[in-house]
Amino acid sequence: MPAITTPPSGHCKTVCVTGAGGFIASWLVKLLLEKGYIVKGTVRNPEDPKNDHLRALEGAGKSLVLCKADLLDYDSLRSAVDGCEGVFHTASPLTDDPNKMLEPAINGTRNVMDAAADAGVRRVVFTSSVGAIYMNPKRCPDVVVDETCWSDLDYCKETGNWYCYGKTVAERVAWEVARERGLELVVMNPAVVLGPLLQPTVNASTIHILKYLTGSAKTYTNAVQAYAHVKDVAAAHLAVYESERASGRYLCAEGMLHRGDVVQALAELFPQYPVPTKCSDEVNPRKTGYKFTNQRLRDLGIQFTPVKQCLYDTVKSLQEKGVLPVMP
Ligand SMILES: NC(=O)c1ccc[n+]([C@@H]2O[C@H](COP(=O)([O-])OP(=O)(O)OC[C@H]3O[C@@H](n4cnc5c(N)ncnc54)[C@H](OP(=O)(O)O)[C@@H]3O)[C@@H](O)[C@H]2O)c1
């Protein structure tokens, strides 16, 4: 069924989701439609068949409007957020190429925040990242990482982590504009997000797992990451939007795994794939993760799916989409 072109006027529950066709945003749009919201979803090209999955969502015909908008085009964003009570700003590049990352992430966030303030939006939920929280080598290993922690910009720059740099600066800009313009802001800081895909294309955090199943990664890196399930991340976005007591930042992560644990879990669950067994770093000691807390989201009623289930759901989805061959 085609998406409607204009939302019913005067609806008090109209919200905008930027980058609606993305991995996380698609689940968020689905959830919002299920909850009875009218959704204005921004995409760069509404005609692109890669957005057909949005038009196919239950309720889309009645309650989803796809708006053409680019993060670097204020006017397109201003018209997308017009009439909205809330804005979920999820759109961002996900790359360590500074030329592609920084401008849309940072200036794009400023544009979204300004557009929301100009349109009289009640609350913005900005999808930041755990990458804006944990990248700090000076932090004592015993510290429990929580929402008070911020990534060190110099360290991100020195190590070429332009994605974490961009997300950190973008989040700072969001807070700055919110303060200046008196706009209500809540920030979600998800870890690496896994789980089933609604969209037809394979996003960056899914490639993080896919490469271990196709044979393209012959080794695994000596690195540690925290993970979250995409359905939990969508639920967390909605919870911080709807809860009157929600404020500040929310670290959204279930568990921490070394890549060695990731490949071991994948090999146990799906022994048919050529999952690497060797670490690319045979010199340094195995990296250890940081301690973190997701208590703030649990206090809002979010229940986290175990990481092993995240891995399982990701692979099953890739098989169902025909991205990964189902081998005996
Ligand atoms: N996935 C993760 O592991 C993870 C973890 C923590 C935080 N996050 C954050 O969560 C958000 C969504 O991530 P995701 O994994 O769902 O990413 P995704 O699937 O790659 O989706 C990103 C979306 O951003 C849009 N976008 C990129 N540049 C744009 C621009 N200049 N103007 C308008 N739209 C633009 C893309 O639109 P097009 O389709 O037109 O390209 C796409 O729909 C991002 O802010 C990301 O930083 C993700």
Topology:
Elements: E1 14-18, H1 23-34, E2 38-43, H2 52-55, H3 60-63, E3 64-68, H4 74-81, E4 86-89, H5 98-118, E5 123-127, E6 144-145, H6 153-158, H7 162-181, E7 184-190, E8 192-194, H8 204-210, E9 219-220, E10 224-229, H9 230-242, E11 248-252, E12 255-258, H10 259-269, E13 278-279, E14 291-292, H11 295-299, H12 307-320
The structure holds NADP nicotinamide-adenine-dinucleotide phosphate (NAP).
The site of NADP nicotinamide-adenine-dinucleotide phosphate has 27 residues, from helix 1, helix 5, strand 8 and helix 8.
Family: Belongs to the NAD(P)-dependent epimerase/dehydratase family. Dihydroflavonol-4-reductase subfamily.
Pfam families: Epimerase (PF01370)
Protein name: cinnamoyl-CoA reductase
In short:
The protein is of the alpha/beta class. The protein has a domain at 14-194 and 229-253 and 289-305: NAD(P)-binding Rossmann-like Domain (Rossmann fold, 3-Layer(aba) Sandwich), CATH 3.40.50.720.
Can you tell me about this structure?
The chain is α/β, with parallel strands linked by helices and 328 residues long. The chain has a domain at 14-194 and 229-253 and 289-305: NAD(P)-binding Rossmann-like Domain (Rossmann fold). It has helices at 23-34, 52-55, 60-63, 74-81, 98-118, 153-158, 162-181, 204-210, 230-242, 259-269, 295-299, 307-320, and strands at residues 14-18, 38-43, 64-68, 86-89, 123-127, 144-145, 184-190, 192-194, 219-220, 224-229, 248-252, 255-258, 278-279, 291-292. The chain has a 7-stranded parallel beta sheet, sandwiched between helices. Strands 8-10-12 form a 3-stranded mixed beta sheet. Helix 5 (98-118) links the parallel strand 4 (86-89) and strand 5. The longest helix has 21 residues, at 98-118. The two termini are 37 Å apart. The model is unreliable at 1-11 (pLDDT under 50). The structure holds NADP nicotinamide-adenine-dinucleotide phosphate. NADP nicotinamide-adenine-dinucleotide phosphate binds at residues 19, 21-25, 43-44, 70-72, 90-94, 104, 108, 127, 129, 167, 190, 192-193, 203-205.
